[in-house]
Amino acid sequence: EKDGYPSFMEKEINDQPDAVAATLLGRSDLEGKLTLDEMRIDPQVLKTINKIIVLACGTSAYAGQVAKYAIEHWCRIPTEVELSHEFRYRDPIVDENTLIVSISQSGETMDTLMAVRYAREQGAKTISICNTNGSTIPRESDAVLYTHAGPEIAVASTKAFLAQITATYLLGLYLAQLRGNLFQGQIKDILADLAKTPAKIAQVLANAAQIKDLALSMANTRTVLFLGRHVGYPVALEGALKLKELAYIHAEGFAAGELKHGPIALIEEGQPVFVVVPSPRGRDSLHAKVVSNIQEVRARGAMTIVIAEEGDESVREHAEHVFYIPETTTLLAPLLTTVPLQIFACALATAKGYDVDQPRNLAKSVTVE
Ligand code: BG6
C-alpha cells in the first residue's frame, strides 16, 4: 500500500502531482468554462453573496488562508478565514447573503461541523471542500466540491492540502465566471497555468535529495522560523506546523513584514530561518521586500534557507541554502513552495527516528469539540 515508500507520508507527498491533477480533472471544458457538478446552490443565489467566510482547522485552515488571496483577487468578494472553533463563540455576522466555505479533509472534524451547522441556522449558504465521499460535513452542506486526493492515511496532512488549495482556486474561478469578474479568456489562462502545476510539483519532488540532505544536517536543531508574505505567509505557517507535528521541533511561521514589529528579537547566531520568496515577476515589489527581510535576519546571524523561483539569482548572496521551484504565477505558487517544506519536516522527523505517519498525541480526524 505504501508503494515501496518507507511511510505513508512519503508516499502521500509523492502522490501530490496526481492529487492536484485529479482535483482539476473534468471540471472545465476547452474554452475554460467551469462546470462544478456538485455545486448545488442556485447560481442566482451565488450572485447575491456579499461575503465569504472560510471555516477550517489545522492544515485545512492554511488552505483557507491561501484561498482568501485568490478569491478576493479574482471575485472581489470580501473573504474572511476563521478557525471553526473560534467562529461560533464570538457572535459572528452571518446571514443569507453569506457564503460559508468549509474545508475539511476528513469531513468529520467536529469543530468544523458545529460551525457549519451554526452558520446554516443563521441562513447562510454552505459549501464543503472535502476529501472524503459521503462524510458528515458534505452531507450537511448545501453543496460540495470534492478534492480527489485519494485516501490520506498519514495523520498530518500533505496531499489533501494541495488538493484543497486547488479546489479553492476552482471555486474562486467559478464564482468569478458566474459573477462576471473575469473574462472567460482570463479564466482559461489561469486554468492552463493550473494544469501545468502537477508536472512542476513532480520537478520539485525530483529534487528532494537536496532538501533531505539539509534536514539530516539539522537533526539537532531546537527551533526553526519560517517567513513568507502574501500567499507565502500561509505556506510559512504550514511549514512550521509540519515541523511541530512530525519532528516535535519548536517552529513558528511569521508574515515577513511583521518581523520588525517583534519576532526579529528572536534572531541570534545560527538561528535557522526558512524564507518563502515570491516570484520576481510578480506585482507590488513583494519580491524586493522579502529579499530585504532575508538581509535583515541574516545581518543578525540567521542561517537562511530560501525557497525561490528558478532563475532568481538575486537571493543567492543572501542565503546559506537555496531551493528553486519552477516558475508559476504569484497566486498559484503555494502548490509548489509548500512541497520542499513538507519534505524537510518528514526527512528531519525520520532522521530523529519518529513515526511520521502517527505522530504522538495527534489523531487523523478529531471528532470531539
Ligand atoms: C487535525 C489533523 O486533527 O485536524 C490535521 O491532525 C488536520 O492533519 C486537522 O489538518 C483538520 O482536519 P480536517 O479533516 O478537518 O481537514
Automatic annotation (TrEMBL):
Keywords, alphabetical: Aminotransferase, Cytoplasm, Glutamine amidotransferase, Repeat, Transferase
Domain SIS, first and last residues per copy: 41-181, 214-359
Active site: 364
Catalytic activity: D-fructose 6-phosphate + L-glutamine = D-glucosamine 6-phosphate + L-glutamate
Top enzyme class: transferase
One Gene Ontology term of the molecular function aspect: glutamine-fructose-6-phosphate transaminase (isomerizing) activity
EC numbers: 2.6.1.16
Subcellular location: Cytoplasm
Subunit structure and binding partners: Homodimer.
Function comment: Catalyzes the first step in hexosamine metabolism, converting fructose-6P into glucosamine-6P using glutamine as a nitrogen source.
Annotated protein name in UniProt: Glutamine--fructose-6-phosphate aminotransferase [isomerizing]
Organismal lineage: Bacteria, Bacillati, Actinomycetota, Actinomycetes, Micrococcales
Residue window of the full protein shown: 272 to 640 of 640
